[in-house]
Amino acid sequence: DDKNRQILISLIKMYQGGKSRYLNFYGPAATITTYPYYQFLQNTANAADTNKIDLRGKAVFIGAAGQAWSEQQSSFHTVYSQKSGHNISSVEIAATAFANLLDDMPVRPLAYRDHLIFIFVWGTILGIVCYFYSARTMTIGLFFLSIFYLSIARWQFASAGIWYPIVVPVFIQIPSAYFGIIFCKYLKVKKEEKNIRKAFGCYLPDTVVDKLAKDMASLTSNQHMVYGTCLMTDAAFYTSLSETMAPDELARFMNTYFEALFGPVRHHGGVISDVVGDSMLAIWTTTKPDTMLRKRACLAALDIARLEHHLDISTGQKSLPTRIGLHSGYMMLGNIGAKDHYEYTPIGDIVNTASRIEGLNKYLNTRLLVAKEVVHELDFFLTRRLGQFLLAGKTKPVEIYELLGRKDDADEKMKQLCAGFETALDAFENRSWDTAIQEFQNIFRVQENDGPSLFYLTLCEKYKESPPETGWDRMVHLDRK
User: Fold this and answer.
1) With contact defined as beta carbons under 8 Å apart, do 91 and 5 qualify?
2) Rounded distance, CA 148 to CA 236, Å?
3) Residues 328 and 356 in one domain
4) What is the DSSP letter of 468?
């Protein structure tokens, strides 16, 4: 029958297995049916008793099994030992071992190799769950995986005595996978944030990037009035140069060109605000007028003007001279745009005027022009006053100076140039055309083909033939950029 078949299978497996087994305890002391010895004596004496103990087909183990701690003569500490000191007796342990063999239900821990493979596979599953899902999904998934694993382990232990590891998979691997992936994702996010900050830093000042990182709402509200200096540059002959170069070659050339421009600006504390085509706009800003701010902007402009012989950056036979214009005053600075497109840029008359001043270089054949507001009270630099100009599209005149360099670096020739030009310009503003023409011509002895002198000579000849109206405001009017 089935019972005898089970006993036979158990005996075969007993001899097939190893020399030792792990006890599979059924519960605390007295879980296996236990009778006091005197009941067996009474059972033998009263043969007619209907409640007598039936020992047929049963294995009987005899030994001391006291219920009280003081009565336990031979007992051992097990997982079912009680705080009172009540252990399982040795006779019940022997009965447990016999029952395990009879039922073929000893505890069966995984073999060492299988244990390692199981830990590896389980760890791989945890890694996949943690890596490819969000933190919320990962948390829920790990929770249900833990419940599922514990349920399977309990079922396997109860039905077959297979002992799956619990501590390492549930209490070590799961927390390690969870917090490990959280930490890895944190490092990944920090790396991405660093890359994004670095990328945004190519377009925005670091302070603006920090504000946007903390609060995107500042994108539309980050506008404030500042005092600043705008430096505008423009590359001469860019249009003709672009016609002679392939797009990829032109792109490399312009990258080299702008790299040369950006260096002095950043070295002197400026911010690159905008780059369009061959033009660059750099700004220096503060909350109130600051002499040092204007000084740094002028130093940057002089450094740009000195680079590669006035930025005549050459590639073969190609060159790209650079014109520079500066103006200082109050302007609005912030994110300008709407909907899904914004630019961080200054807005105001100062910016437009700086662009017009830069364009004035084309008329005067100069490289570096500044408004009077830029060099006011800056005795550190050698400048040449070029007069008042009403620039294209403007209604207010701007007094223009040419920034020649530092006074300490100026030679006698440069000083003579400035003094002679001031004399000639005074004669021009006083409508003394012949005197002005003579003085401007004398400047050519100091600086041959001086651009501003040539410009005013032409203007003097024009006014000599057709003098301006009475009430002339001494301004030079320009109708084109």
Assistant:
1) no
2) 74
3) yes
4) P
Domain count of the fold of the chain: 3
Among residues 302, 352, 304, the alpha carbon closest in space to that of 332 is found at: 352
Kindly tell me the number of DSSP H helices and DSSP E strands found in the chain: 17, 13
Q: What is the pLDDT of residues 251-299, one digit of tens each?
A: 888 888 888 899 999 999 998 888 888 899 999 988 888 999 999 999 9
Name which residue leads in pLDDT, 370 or 50.
370
> Do residues 358 and 400 touch, judged by C-beta distance below 8 A?
no
In a domain, 140, yes or no: yes
C-alpha dihedral sign at 393, 394, 395, 398 = negative
For residue 70, give the DSSP letter. Answer: G
Residues 116 and 102 in one domain: no
Q: Which DSSP helix (H) or strand (E) runs through 95?
A: helix 90-103
Q: Report the DSSP beta bridge partners of residue 385.
A: 401
Between CA 186 and CA 194, with CA 189 as vertex, the angle to 5 degrees is: 125
Q: What is the pLDDT of residue 309?
A: 52
**Nearest CA to 110 among 145, 148, 154, 161?**
161
Cα distance between residue 419 and residue 432, in whole Å: 18
Judge if 190 and 255 occupy the same domain: no
pLDDT digit string (tens) for 6-22? 777 777 777 666 677 78
Each residue's pLDDT tens digit, 423-440: 999 999 999 999 999 999
75 falls within a domain: yes
Under DSSP, the state recorded for 30 is T
Instruction: Determine which helix (DSSP H) or strand (DSSP E) holds 75, and give its type and residue range.
Output: strand 75-76
234 lies in a domain?
yes
Question: Residue 123 sits in which domain range?
Answer: 112-199
In the chain, the amino acid numbered 291 is T
- Assign residue 106 a region: left if phi > 0, alpha if psi is -120 to 50, beta otherwise? beta
